[in-house]
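Hi,

I'm pasting everything inline rather than attaching a file, because the server keeps stripping attachments. The sequence lines come first, and each chain or strand is labelled.
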Amino acid sequence: MRLALAIASFVVLIVHGLVFHDQFFHRWERHQTAYFEQARSLSKNPRERAELEARAPHIEQIIVTSFGDTRVDRCVTCHIAADDPRFAGMAEPLKTHPYSAALGDVQRNGHWERRHKFSDFGCTVCHEGQGRGLDNFHSHGEDEFWPEPMLGYVTQANWRKDFEPHLKGAAYMEAACAQCHTQQDFAGTPHVNRGRKLFYAMNCYGCHKIDGISEGTLGPDLTEAGKKFKIDYLWESIVEPRANLDTSFMPNFHLGNDDVEALVIFLKSRRGVNFAETTLDRYKAHIENVAVVIPPGTAGEKAGEQLLADRACTACHKLRDRDGGIAPDLSYEGLIRDDAWLMEHFKNPRSRIPDSIMPTFRFPDEDFERLSAFLGSLKTPPAPAAADVTYQQLCERCHGEKGDGAGKVAWYIDPSPRDFTKQGFMSSKPRDRFVTSIKEGVPGTSMPPWGRTLKDDQVDGVLNYVLKTFAKIDAPSPKQHNVPDHNPVATSDASVSRGEKIFLERCTGCHGRKADGKGPNSLDIFPHPRNLRNHWFVAKVEDRRLFDSILYGVQGTAMPSWIDYGLSKEDAGDIINFIRGINPSARSEQPHASN
Amino acid sequence: MSTAPDTTIWTTLKELPSNVWSSIFRNPLPNTDLERSSTSFTNFFLHIHPVKVHRNTLRPIYTLGLGLISLFLFLILVVTGVLLMFYYVPSTTQAYDRMLDLRGTVAFGIFLRNMHRWSAHGMVAMVFLHMCRVFLTGAYKKPREFNWVIGVLLLLVTLFLSFTGYLLPWDQLAYWAITVGTSIAAYAPLIGKQMQFVLLGDTTVGQEALLRFYVLHVAVLPAVLVLLAAIHFWRIRKDGGLSRPQPAEAAAKPMVYKKVVYGLQGFVRGPFTKVGNVPDDSVYSWPNLLLSELFVFVLTVSVILVVSLLFNAPLEQPVNVMHPPNPAKAPWYFLGLQEMVSYSAFWGGIGIPGLMVALLLGVPYLDRNPKGVGRWFAKERLLANTLFLTLVTLNVIFIIIGTFFRGPNWTFVSPF
Amino acid sequence: MPVAQRLHDNDTDAGPRTIERRRLLAWLSSVGLFGSAVLAAVSNLVFFKPRVTYSPSARFSIGKPDDFPPGTRISRDVERVCVVREGNRMAAISTTCTHLGCIVGISDTGFACPCHGSRYDQDGTVTGGPAPKPLPWFQVSLAPNGELEVDKNTQVDPGTYLTV
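And the predicted assembly:
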């Protein structure tokens, strides 16, 4: 035991020594000593040389309180030569901070004078990083838990490797400049300016709110995006909108890297607070609730077509030679929609198509009127052509070139375009139904009434083409089920509450507790469960079809035939009363055209 | 006694309360001498007391209960201090506001703060008087020298506790008192400035000083004090209880130390082995000593309660670093020092106080006269008592001058 | 060693060699433990002395020489320094009273402390009151970027000026 104790005591002594030694001889001391030596050799003044000789390494810091929370920047501990002009050619960290006219520095009598003095600004307000750190890993912000890595210079270990090359470069620092220099066309922040222009040109402003710039409510508020998120997250959110939220319906705009970079820099500059503002400015803006800023270049009397270009509708829609690849083709709008529909749809797209992802733009009414008028004027019908060409021109965009409902814009449409290759579905519905869907459209969905531009024989032709080519059947052969044409169960409070009870027990797993089709299973099912609050749709659909779907299911989809699970006709009647009950406008007469 | 094998669950439950009670309190409330002995011996809290104490110990005129009063004041300080900790924040921006909250909105806040403040002043005074009592009764002499040294250390810790606590309200009174106090510390040769820097955590009194003083005040110093106090009480037992006048015939008796191990009781080697040799003028701790202690406790608490009801602890303006008051005075127990400093910075602040502490620590080793223990103002100790009282009086006079007779720029003013 | 080493030896039957060995081991253990204790204690002292404080840095810039016209004495309360320029010579005198740390104000004859009445002349020498030491002078130097720097960590003799 004594021997063991003696050995252990010695070991503990060594360990104590190591612990003690670890707290001395830091790297920054070596940097500082190197600086003192080099400065001494560069100095011509004996007094200065003596002072440098006597100088010992110390932690140097700049404490800045003018920019929000107190910043303690210790960068100058290693970068001690940052303000010594003689070190311009040295290697980091003993390199002079560059002077540049772009930063506002001026030359006087052959000497540069800094506009942004370090004693006033510190370092992190421009470069970000961690001011209080004293080793590379922490002070540069390589630590993944530090929310502000050095802009454009540092990437963190958990960032995606495929993004990293794009996230470096001095341009990213413009995001910090814009914290004070908020003017729209400030010469020193070209990337921010470009990003702002893109924010309008790609219609980001329609969905996303940024205080003082836009009022969109469909997407997250980006007023403080720069404060909340790092640049890799911003990049990812733009190029892969569903990377972090599976249910996001933000379109992928397929932008080039330069555009994404500009947008990221612009968003990174959004910190919610402008250091150049006074408290009074901010309060005034808050109580006056500054209205949306109309995107530049669109004031005054503009023709509808010009407006459409200015509002960048083709960032999503297709018109003539421009195609955003996200929303339907507008070329035939005048034929398939009437002015009243267009106007209402503009004011609030969800008033006509409840699950539309089109943003609600807060344009002035005259703009809407002009836009509606312009779209209404697009009345040139497609040239008469063979069924397959007609399909290509009018249907393929949504239903896909293979007819599988995976068209170019299909992902952005809810309910999804029908998959015609589902033979079970296609053959279980009466032909009349398909004809009606094509001619009159499906209200509450993006399927327009093509009958207004297609003649009956064209309609038949396209339908046959679809059935043969995609569904691979000649004609549907639906089974006749014993379902009533009209709901025999009278509408009453008792029936509705019975129906609600059954609905809550059986249906919410797919159709959701709010009957909006967003139940927990809905994401795993394709086609997605029907939104039963789509009052346009519910108003149009007949009781017979509802009975059929509920009791005997919908082939080709996940809707089971509930009669096999013990649901009776009366139960179905109650459910139908319930569904109609939660769509009140379905009962009233529509003042406008119903499609 | 139910030993029958058919004890039912009901009997178990019925007997439960008394079983619980007797498992905690194994001895009954004492009625016989044996039980009185057992209680002192076997109870965790009570066994700091000996089973029997000398009559002299309980004479109020002898000790005036000063040591006990100091202890109870400390207990009040700990309890009120911990309660205050639930609302106080040691931040230069928040401390003063929290004091206002304690005064204004916290239930009993103003009362607790008063209790804490007046107990603190009281403890400094009582500890000092206790030291005077011990000196004037010669109770520091052999074998109690080391206990005296511990006592002096306790005095210093008490002063330091009071000093660190003084800063916490972060008002003008606190800030400048501590600025003055720590500047005095800087006069120490060679290490003075370094000491001041480490104490304050900065070159001037600021957030660092507030934080350091807070940690010292609520954690480090109380722990040190409790440790020293525990040793202090242990030493009283080991030294044979409180000092008392020697009975004339026992004066020449030599001590006999046996080497045989008696078990626990045998470890007591002082002049007070109980085994078979019970002096006549001792009484049982239970209930006599305990009653006296309880009485002193009630008295202390009552006085503190009344004083806290009648007088409010001061809270002056919030700290204004640019606006030193004129004059800026240290806490009252350091005013004697400050008065002396105004004559000579080093001697007044470091030299003389250092000398006084050194003398205090050395007194039991310098005064080897074994006579005069256990009596106030024993004639055999005239020299020692006179010297001591002179120094005490001088200190008190300096404190009085510093408190009442000094005005702006430390010039003489009349308090009338 | 003829006797096999056991964990618990009886003191009574230890031979002289064993005792010698034990003494050596005890000495080694003591060295190790005592040394560790010393290192730990020193580490604590190093811990308590702050390496950096949040008050203004001891070395700070006061601006360019042109900011101080000749013949001026400008007091900077935050850094507790009075910048003096006589002709082309510059100096920095501390405005912390050497008595008990109050801020001295500039007076016609030099400096005056409001706390306890200390008086200093233009160079910081004590002319009255309880101040025990003169006001220290701090090193003023010209930084490479053309600005003046005062270093409160370095005291210079009174009367030491920087020529600009």
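The longest strand of chain B covers residues 52-54.

If the labels don't parse on your end, tell me and I'll reformat.
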